[in-house]
């Protein structure tokens, strides 16, 4: 039932087109309805929609729901899963009356409300933001990787805090995300790029350095892992991130040279700095498939960068900006989302309702 996702795309286009963004209230309404559509599809999905759902149910939700406090503490000490997510499972099993479907709904609501709040707060074009969110793979990913998608959602809150220079709150939210998925600790690196500036004239040198890193990615990764995390050396394998890396490089040039209207300062804002971290992560995508999961923490901000860059770009002709937005939407949906659904990536394409 791949068509259910196509129906969602049509729904998002219709809702945002009809309601529009003429006022803050209409923009809020459009985002709320968009969020509700995604939540509904994720709440009604069956156990087979998401390759990891069966394991989450059998290995975590059901066993944890039956544990008393002593057993829960013992389970946490074994270190099989992150402490925060284990406690979350216990709490939600009580609140949801041990109902798996309500549990899935609770995660869908938490994650998508945070994303909707962020899009409403920062995006100039919520529709394009949602289409990019779906196009870069996070939409499909959210159906399966429950722990990490929650961690990513919490790092979005962390981003908002550091964007407003609330540094202590930033680290608190990164720690909360870490309690749900250990990989979230990498998001702490954006503290280092908060006030980092790259001018247009410096970009070629920066990209040349990135290209050199790409050429020696395996050697660099092996050296780092051997020193700090030798247990992860086994994850160095042939990945499939070269295509996405090419897209990221193309976007980098576009966002710096085409979309940046501020010709006086020639600087990019914090959002672009975070995207450059995503590019840096993706340099290692060809030697490990896990790199894509790490990149998600940073690439998600494309859903803000692209709409705002197009809206406030160097080309002031509104018709050209609208055409650019349309091309981005078509590219994200047709090139990235639809192939993933047709190949049943993460078992999301073959959608089924929970009552089927």
From the structure above, extract its key features.
globular; mainly alpha; 356 residues; 17 helices; single chain
Report on this structure.
With 356 residues, the protein is mostly helical. It has one domain (3-347). The protein is built from 17 helices and no strands. The protein has helices at residues 3-19, 24-43, 53-65, 69-78, 83-95, 100-122, 126-135, 138-141, 146-163, 167-180, 203-215, 217-228, 242-257, 270-282, 291-299, 302-311, 318-342. α2 (24-43) packs antiparallel against α6 and α6 (100-122) packs parallel to α9 (146-163). It is globular and about 60 Å long. The model is unreliable at 261-267 (pLDDT under 50).
Concise account of the structure shown:
By secondary structure, this protein is mainly alpha-helical.
Rg over CA atoms:
21 Å
Percentage beta strand: under 5%
Mass-distribution shape: globular
Unreliable stretches covering 5 or more consecutive residues: 261-267
Structural class label: mainly alpha
In whole angstroms, the N-to-C terminal distance is 12 Å
Largest β sheet strand count, sense and barrel closure: none
* Count of discrete domains: 1
Q: Residue share in helices? A: 55-70%
Q: Write down how many β-strands occur, each being a DSSP E stretch of 2 or more residues.
A: 0
Tally the helices: what do you get?
17
Order of helical and strand elements = HHHHHHHHHHHHHHHHH
Report mean pLDDT, rounded to a whole number. 83
């Amino acid at each position: 039932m791949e068509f259910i996702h196509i129906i969602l795309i049509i729904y998002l286009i219709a809702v945002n087109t009809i309601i529009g963004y003429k006022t803050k209230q209409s923009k809020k309404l459009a985002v709320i309805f968009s969020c509700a559509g995604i939540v509904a599809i994720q709440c009604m999905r069956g156990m087979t929609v998401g390759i990891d759902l069966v394991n989450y149910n059998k290995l975590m939700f059901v066993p944890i729901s039956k544990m008393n406090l002593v057993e829960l503490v013992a389970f946490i000490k074994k270190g099989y899963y992150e402490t925060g997510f284990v406690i979350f499972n216990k709490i939600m099993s009580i609140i949801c009356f041990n109902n798996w479907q309500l549990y899935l709904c609770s995660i869908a609501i938490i994650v998508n409300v945070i994303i909707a709040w962020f899009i409403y707060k920062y995006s100039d074009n919520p529709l394009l933001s949602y289409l990019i969110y779906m196009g870069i793979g996070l939409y499909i990913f959210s159906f399966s990787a429950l722990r990490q998608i929650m961690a990513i959602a919490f790092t979005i809150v962390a981003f908002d805090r550091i964007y407003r220079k609330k540094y202590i709150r930033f680290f608190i939210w990164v720690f909360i995300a870490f309690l749900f998925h250990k990989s979230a600790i990498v998001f702490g690196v954006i503290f280092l790029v908060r006030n980092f500036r790259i001018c247009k004239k410096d970009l070629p040198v920066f990209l040349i350095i990135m290209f050199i890193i790409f050429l020696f990615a395996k050697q660099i990764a092996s050296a780092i892992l051997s020193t700090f995390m030798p247990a992860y050396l086994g994850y160095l394998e042939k990945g499939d991130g070269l295509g996405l890396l090419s897209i990221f490089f193309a976007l980098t040039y576009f966002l710096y040279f085409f979309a940046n209207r501020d010709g006086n300062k020639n600087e990019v804002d914090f959002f672009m700095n975070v995207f450059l971290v995503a590019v840096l992560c993706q340099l290692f995508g060809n030697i490990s498939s896990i790199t894509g999961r790490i990149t998600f923490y940073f690439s998600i901000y494309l859903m803000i960068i692209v709409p705002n860059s197009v809206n406030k770009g160097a080309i002031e002709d509104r018709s050209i900006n609208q055409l650019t937005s349309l091309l981005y939407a078509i590219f994200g949906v047709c090139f990235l989302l639809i192939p993933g659904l047709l190949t049943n990536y993460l078992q999301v394409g073959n959608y089924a309702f929970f009552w089927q």
